[in-house]
Design brief:
The complex is a heterodimer of chains A (524) and B (432). Chain A contains 23 helices and four strands. Chain A has 524 residues and is mostly helical. Among the domains of chain A are: 156 residues, no CATH class; 88 residues, Alpha-Beta Plaits (2-Layer Sandwich), CATH 3.30.70.20. In chain A, strand 1 and strand 2 form a beta hairpin. The radius of gyration of chain A is 24 Å and the shape is flat. Chain B has 432 residues and is of the alpha/beta class. Chain B has three domains: 173 residues, FAD/NAD(P)-binding domain, CATH 3.50.50.60; 120 residues, 3-Layer(bba) Sandwich (FAD/NAD(P)-binding domain), CATH 3.50.50; 109 residues, FAD/NAD-linked reductase, C-terminal dimerisation domain (Enolase-like, domain 1, 2-Layer Sandwich), CATH 3.30.390.30. Chain B has eleven helices and 25 strands. In chain B, the strands form seven sheets. Chain B has a five-stranded parallel beta sheet with strand order 3-2-1-7-19. Chain B has a five-stranded parallel beta sheet with strand order 9-16-10-11-12, with helices on one face. In chain B, strand 11, helix 6 and strand 12 form a beta-alpha-beta unit. In chain B, helix 1 runs parallel beside helix 7. The chains are: A mainly alpha (524), B alpha/beta (432). At the A-B interface, helix 7, helix 20, helix 22, strand 4 and helix 23 of A face helix 7, strand 21 and helix 8 of B.
Amino acid sequence: MSLAKPDAINISTKQKVALAIGIIGLFILALALFNTNFPNKGVFLTLALGLITIGIVVYSRDAYLTKLEGIKNDGVWFKSISSRGVWGWIVGVILTTFYIVLYFYPQYLGLDTATKDHANNTGLVSLFDPLSQLLSGRNASQWFVYGALYTVAILAFGYKFILKYRHNRYQQIRTVSVMFFQLGFAFLIPEFMYVMNNDLPYYDLKSVWPLNYYIFDEWSVNGFLSNGSIGLALILFGIISIFVITPILTYKFGKRWYCSWVCGCGGLAETAGDSFRQLSSKKMSAWKLERWLIHLVLVFSVVMTTAMVYTYLGYDSNDFWLTRGVFIALVIGFLTVVFAGVMLFKRQELGKDAKYGAIGLFAVIAILITMHLTGTNENVFYVKAGNLRSAYGIYIGSIFSGVIGTGFYPILGSRSWCRFGCPMAAILGFQQRLFSKFRITTNGGQCISCGNCSNSCEMGIDVRHYAQKGENIVRSSCVGCGICSAVCPRGVLKLENDSMKGRINPTEVLLGNDVDLMDLVNQK
Amino acid sequence: MEHIVIIGNGISGVTLARHIRKLSDKKITIVSGETDYFFSRTALMYIYMGHMKFEHTQPYEDWFWKKNRIDLRKAFVQHIDTDKKTLALDDGDLLTYDKLVIATGSKPNKFGWPGQDLDGVMGMYHKQDLENLEAYAPNNKVCKRAVIVGGGLIGIELAEMLNSRNIPVTFLVRESSFWNGVLPEGESVMINRHIKNHHIDLRLSTNLKEIKSDSNGKVKSVIIEETGEEIACDVVGLTAGVSPNIDFIKSSNIETGRGVKVNRYLETNVPDVYAIGDCAEQHEAIGNRRPIEAVWYTGRMMGETLAQTICGNRIQYKPGHWFNSAKFLDIEYQTYGWVFSKPKEGHAHFHWRHADDTKCITIEYDISTNQFVGINTFGIRMRHETFDTWLTENRDVDYVINHLSEANFDPEFYSHYETEVLSAYNNQLQTA
């Protein structure tokens, strides 16, 4: 990951030294991966992570602090790593391979799969044992290794990003936020929670269902419920997160409060992935694909979760009031209320999508009713519910979000998971489009169609399409990173939370023209 | 079906075509020899700097034109026959029209300097200029120094471009301070300092005498008029303004001055022939505007206006309140209303500058009525709509200064300077 810009073109001696330091750190990790048995693992782990961090820090300081404050995108499309050149592909292949091994062959990372507590780790995983022991008194798993590397990447590249945008406080504060949530919520707190109560399932508090697709699995729910009031509180928090906290915050701030301030996937994309943001496709065809794909994943995750919960609920209301029938009725009722509410209050904004929404809703209801009619203790749709859940875990949770989402950073840009796959982003985006105060305001007629905004949009939004028409940008996919506003040379774009009125403002003729003409054409 | 032919695929011509399509079913053809598709000229600099590739400067995908039935014809027009309503193209074809719109933009000025046509001497306006620059200044080994002649918006952009590839730049500016024919003193000198902070060799009050050639007809050096100094260089950028790109019209019946002469309806002297954008010259200037407005926004506005006229709703070009913007290296600039380099008679300036020397504002107002006339703002973004409203409402300067925060358009969490501006304003009034 420290191979942010390995090109030898235009980099100073100091930057070359910094790259060398970082590569030595990576080399230690590579040696461990190939089963070098380091004598004092704690020292070598510290050395490896330390050198990588120092390399990135020194490199960034020389790259940005030697120049005046301002936009630092010179040569982005010339550098091999950030323009799908040879280095881009090499890094892409390395990352993709790493993810495949991580998800499907962790034994090659040195994970001891024979014992439950990984007593005899070797290789890369064993190198992380001392750190894991220090934090939670147990040996490392492949997920601990991944989490530690992930956190180092967000912290070190976050520092780089803060220097790059040192004239922009929005960017700085936002980056400190993702660094904080990664280090605290995703990495440290779950380890400490384990120390306090080692029966609790791993729970990253900020990871909300449906992004956290396993929280309502039977083992997870049982894990929580068997731990008394703390466990109950945690699972209630999980439910409140998606049904109460998320809608309120998204209404006030847009989905950015999550996607580019809190979320770990977003955090990595905004820091380590920053060099690749311009690679996302801005074509209309990509947008069409995005709308289908992300909503299909959402439907899949809703059905999958419902099916999972369904199978461990009973038939008899004497045991527990929440029976299968009640549960299915609740889900269908909730979806119908949401859809009816949208049709009632937001028919206008929905436009042509209302038809697709209706088809989608009825499809889901039909699927759920079929499930109820055909479901047994184990099976739904005549297959094991567990199989549905594993399919989701493998294809969506691992391959889509990890292997493609992050492994393909240097090819598809840094947010392809967030854009095409994340069901959480789909829910937040739906709300952002219809019930939120957030928008990117276009500044009257000042746009010169230069394209810097679209180019730097990691979500592939053709920002210019709106800006050059004087229209505000109200798109469900916008994660509110604010880079379009930062790179605009004419001060055209501003991320704002303001009243709902006039938020979506289609214009025919732009500000600056004869008022009569504007009235005339905008009347229609 | 009426055939509208537009010469030029810049912002003016393309805006016109889009709006005609919205309003009607007419056949539309855009003729351009420069590029296949519309691109944003103002973004050419970012291609050289590596921020974008050429395709990113094209605001519409390639399928857009066919879908909207806007025919594109790649050719230069050589002659216009207004009697037969025909264009002679450089590939030998003839193109007939029912209505013709000239939207050919500008070309860089050359003032007859010796050596101005040598290899390695170029303007920075057309896509071809960019290709030329890429050939002569790919890096600081091939191009050891570049000299830029002319201190305007394109000149400083060219300096920024070359700077991004670590090519040393000498920047010759005729005036005593950068762009001080437009910018008030305080702003102009702040930009001088900013240019120098970027290690650009800024030479004020300096004119070009001649460009010297090596034995292969390529630029070798320039000679300074005032001192006779010879500066060795591999590239010379000529950025001393632009003028209408209308040489091919001179052989027709269409009346031209510096540009194509048009009335307020953007009509030329020949029926069914119109001109818009940089190449159009008003018979009489509109308000404080110049007869020829070579600005992105005015080109777009003329396109929006003329579309109405061509589609049967004949209306005048009546631009609203003046606005413009630019970016000087790292400092953004916006202007709303009129701020002149020296206050107009009966007007005064209020000027505030931040201690960090990258932010300032200048407000021009009427001394007797206190009416707000215009604002220049550097390093602080302002809201177009707010100032447009205040100008329409004839607000006075006190109102504007006291409500400045309503117009702020900076990103969230940025420091605000309204209180500092207000106290500077109050102090200035007391001492005055």
